[in-house]
Amino acid sequence: MNSDTACRVTSDEIIKILQTDGKLGLNENEIQNRRKFYGHNDFEVDDEEPIWKKYLGQFKEPMILLLLVSASLSLLMKQYDDSISITIAIIIVVTVAFIQENRAEKEIEALKKLVPPKCTCIRDGKNHQIFARDLVPGDLCILDIGDRIPADLRLIEVNEISVDESSFTGETKPSLKTILPITFGSRQTSINDRKNVVFMGTHVLNGNAKGIVICTGEHSEFGKVFQMMQQQEAPKTPLQKSMDALGKQLSFYSLSIIGFIVIVGWLQGRHILEMFTIGVSLAVAAIPEGLPIVVTVTLALGVQRMAKRDAIVKKLPIVETLGCVTVVCSDKTGTLTKNEMTVTNIVTSDGQIAEVCIF
User: Fold this and answer.
1) Does residue 141 have a pLDDT over 90?
2) How much is the pTM?
3) Which residue in 96, 148, 179, 354 has a CA-CA distance of 20 to 30 Å to 313?
4) Which of 4, 21, 331, 350 is the catalytic position?
5) What number does CATH give the domain 3-34+116-229?
6) Would you place residue 48 in the very low, low, confident or very high pLDDT band (cuts 50, 70, 90)?
7) Model pLDDT, residue 6
8) Alpha helices (runs of H) in the chain, residue ranges in sequence order
9) Phi and psi of 233, rounded to 5°?
10) Is 46 a catalytic residue?
11) Residue 118 contacts by C-beta under 8 Å, 6 or more apart in sequence?
């Protein structure tokens, strides 16, 4: 069952299809069975990597790999000072980046758990206040002014209800809802056409209603958008592209220097191992081991400055990307604005004016 199918049938038909009761809701046994089949009403994300794996993942950058090779060659050539200094540089860069990204992930997780969404539903004929993630298809939900809609619902009773769908569709005007079935023949209906369905993540502006849960989690319309976002891989930032290119260029030049010196020494009749050692020493000396430290520390300072302005940056290179932006193309309603009226000043009957501070 999806919202396109649900909007075409009557309230009585949707109750029969989902094998529920329009007055009493589901019973506890049926809820448990459906939860085993459908799962919880939330979004599954990739299993979280262990901390050690996240830390090792910082070593995948070409510049870091080049420094690791440089440190290993210095160690083999018994140049312990160079090997130790390069290793320390690598540890500083990797640790700073790991700590910052791990801290940002923890803050994001804390925000997600700050206000767990709840909803009111009827089960066994009684009203229950439950977590939205515990809903299953067939649950009977009650909607009132200010409620955030916890799942995709097919409305079966309405009392002048209007819903703010701007965060989902971008439409600034409230959507007036009805219980009447929609007739569009075989044509696929759009989100705006489904006037008897309310969608997860939208808000009730006026009125109240009752609705049957038709889709939960990733099967909801909002969940489909979430799945598409999960499938998109984040592109590399300009800084990452530049650092990757620099790492490849340094690798090429280093190998070229080693090869050139070995060939010249061989033509002059010198010992090949001696010339190889000289070539490696020059190649290692040409690698700027301090560059990753400077870049990482600079980005970390930028992240800290943004944190003071209540902005959470998950990945360090994103700071540099924001600095490169010259034009922002964005939807306004629901993205840059909330489509909500806000009181900024209060004027009393005796002419007193008070400014409202919003925290």
Assistant:
1) yes
2) 0.62
3) 148
4) 331
5) 2.70.150.10
6) low
7) 85
8) 3-6, 11-17, 28-38, 51-57, 62-76, 80-114, 166-169, 221-231, 238-267, 272-286, 291-307, 317-324
9) -90, 135
10) no
11) 129, 130, 131, 132
